[in-house]
């Protein structure tokens, strides 16, 4: 959340870069020193018409301009907002439950799921309430009460989301990755922020930003794991691999050989686990990925010619081989055997007519005659 009369590094950063900034110009920054400003990238109605009117840059530039123009909350206002949001949520749920809505249907995680926190999904709450308001199964008094509660609930929820969007940016800057656009990392961090709002309990006594930090970081890390490689690996495997790579760098910095035993000792993993993970194939990439800034050269342009496969030629050769096998199978047994021995269809080497005659108990001339008859019949079949 925000603090009053403190000009943080994020404030100056937004001032300096709001007019001339793209998603790739971010530098790493300690999120604990940052101030979270308001701004809403998640709900479309949060951007006012006057903001859109003078926003002429990229989406990232417009987003940063909008963040800096919004007001901040004090810690006292933050606590009041979270308490009021939780109170409104309980009243709406009680009213929905009164109208026959099952509590399990509002849970963001099912009660039977492992690790369920029992939190209620705000999206489901809003959807159920709006569906109830559209129907005619609610009294006029309850309808008026629910409308008032929903209006205040949306306002407080939107306010709490807006006041922490700068925290999302501060965390996302620590996880910049070429495989994921920075604006996508911010969006995923916003999803984690909304999950934190659903689960936060103000009576615990700690700041909301402290609680939301883990959820925002978790969503960003999951996004990087999903997009890190074409072949997706389990999260525990990726965590262990990162631990192994850090251990390798540490061992080498100490002047020791990066053996499996040293890596296992440095990383704290079992030796068998380290050996099995190091045998995994490396990262995969597309041949169409550009290898220069001009986006004109790709990996395929630099692939050796003998490793490139022409799909049409490959299919044609496979079809031709199948037709040849079918034609040879229709020959008489002795002609088929002579032809197979002569061209190495049975073994890996060709045989002379003398060797063929010895294997079949025929003369060399007779083996040559059978070979000529077989070729003649193949030509007739091919027509």
UniProtKB/TrEMBL annotation:
Matches recorded under Pfam families: Sigma70_r2, Sigma70_r3, Sigma70_r4
Domain RNA polymerase sigma-70: 184-197
Domain of life: Bacteria
Protein name: Sigma-70 family RNA polymerase sigma factor
Entry keywords, A to Z: DNA-binding, Sigma factor, Transcription, Transcription regulation
Xref: PANTHER family: RNA POLYMERASE SIGMA FACTOR RPO, RNA POLYMERASE SIGMA FACTOR SIGD, CHLOROPLASTIC
Composition bias, Acidic residues: 41-52
Species per Swiss-Prot/TrEMBL record: Microbulbifer harenosus
Annotated segments matching region Disordered: 1-56
